[in-house]
Amino acid sequence: MHRTQARTAKGGDGKEKVEEEAVQLRRKIGLLPAISFIVGTVVGSGIFISPKGVLMNSGSVGLSLLVWALSGIISLFGALCFAELGTTFTKSGGQYTYLLELLGPVPAFLRLWADFIFIRPAVIAYGSLAFGRYIVEPFFAPCAAPTVLIKLVGVLGVTFVIAVNSWSVTLTSRIQVFLTAVKMFAVVLIIVPGLIALGKGKTENFQNDLEAELLTLTKLPLAFYNGLYAYGGWFYLNCVTEEVINPNRIIPLAIIFSMVTVTVLYVLINVAYYTVMTPAQLLMSDAVAVTFANQSIQSFAPVIPVLVALSCLGALNGGTFGSPRVLFVAGREGHWPAIFSMIHIRRRTPLPAVLFQFPFAVVMILKGEIYQLLNFASFSRWFFIALSTLGMLIHRYRFPDLPRPFKVPVVITVTFTVVSFFIVGMSLYSDLFNTGCSLALTLSGLPVYYVTIHRPCLPKRFTRTFNYCSKKLQILLEVAQQEVQTY
C-alpha cells in the first residue's frame, strides 16, 4: 500500500498501516541489544591494550585493583543517574537533550558543538587506528607495521561501521550482539588462565601490594582518570531512547546489568594480568593482552590481536549508532541544520546524521596525532556529564512531584556529580595546556550559537544557497522528516 493510500485508511487497521508506512525511527532495541550496545561500547580497546596508566599512577598492584573497582562503581553511579534521566525525559539525544531540558539551549549547544567538532572524531579515530594496528601488525611482526597501511585499514573499519549504521538498525543491532559475544570470549580467554594460575599459588606479584609509600596523592586522580576512561561509553544507550522498546524498563535493567558485569570483568582481567605478569612487565607493555597471551596461552596468542581488533570494531559500532541520534534530535530542535533531522524513507535510519561523522573521522585518522587530542577531549566530556547530573539535582529540587519511573537515591547523584567536577578540576591542575585548548574549542561554539540560532544574522544569499543545497541533498539521500512523534 502506498503511503498516500495508507493515510486514507480508517479504524484500527488503518492506524497500524499509517504507522507502518510512516517515516520514523522504529522501536527495535530490546534488552539483549541494549546490553550489547552498552557492554560492546564500554569494553573497547583500552582494557586489552594499555591498563598500565592505572598502575603507573597508583603505584602498586593492590591500589590499582582498588582504582579499577572504584572506577567501576563511580561509572555505575553515573549510569544510574542517566537511567533516571532517560526515563524522565523520553527523547533521544542523551546529554544534549538533558542539558537542553535542565539548563537551557546554550550549554546544550556547546555540548553538541564540542562533541562533533573534536570529541567524537577523536574517539572514532582512536578506535579505528587501534583496529587497524591489531589487524596489520601480526603480518609484519617482529618489525613495525607501515603507518600508512594501519591508517588505511582504520579508514576501511570506520567505513564499514558507517555503512552498516546507514543501512539498517536491525543489522547494526545484530552485528553489535555478535561483536559483544566475541569480546566476551576474549575476556574469558584472559580471565580463565589467570585464575587457574592464581589457584595454583602464583601469588608473588600480590605480595606487599598495598604499600602506602608508593602512593603519590598528586598522581592518584590521574589513575582514576585512566580507569574511568576505560569504563567510558555507558551513556550511549540514552542517545537512542526513542528506539528502545519499553525504555522505562529496558534502560535501567540494561545499565545496571551491563555496568556491574563490566566492573567484575575488569577487576578479574587485571587480577589475571598481575598473576601472570610482574608490574614491571606490565608497565613495559603497550599491548598488555598480547604480552599476557604470549606468556600464558601461547597456542591462542595469534588469535588475541584479531579478538582485540573486533573488540575495537564493536566499540566503534556502538558509538557510531548512538552519536548520530544526538544530531538528529538537535536538527529537530533547530540547533543544527534541518537536513540532519531527516530519515531515509525506506531504511528508517538517520542517514545524514550518520554520514556526517565520516569526513571528520577520516581526517582525524589520516592526521594520526590523536593521543594528545584524546587527553583534552576527555575534559569537555566529563564537564558536560557533570553539568547533566548537576542539572538533574536542580530539576529534582524545582519539580519534586514530577513522575520519575526510575529514581536514584540522592546520595548517588551528589557523589557522582562531586567526583565528576573533581575530575574536571584535577585535569585543569595537571594539564593546563590541553584542558585550556579543550575549553577554548568548546567556547568557540558560543559565537556560532548567537550568530546562527539565537539571533540569526547570516546573509540572505548564504541562507538561500544553503537551503537550495539542503533540498538537493535531501533528494539525493532519499530522506524526509519524521512523520510520527516518537517521544
From TrEMBL:
Keyword Transmembrane: yes
Keywords noted in UniProt: Membrane, Transmembrane, Transmembrane helix
InterPro entries: AA/rel_permease1 (IPR002293), AminoAcid_Transporter (IPR050598)
Sample GO molecular function, one term: L-amino acid transmembrane transporter activity
Location of the protein in the cell: Membrane
Pfam families in alphabetical order: AA_permease_2
Keyword Ubl conjugation: no
Cellular compartments per GO CC: membrane
Residues passing through the membrane, by range: 29-49, 61-86, 139-165, 177-198, 218-238, 250-276, 296-316, 349-367, 373-394, 406-426, 432-451
Membrane topology term: Multi-pass membrane protein
Protein name, per record: Cystine/glutamate transporter-like
Source organism phylogeny: Eukaryota, Metazoa, Chordata, Craniata, Vertebrata
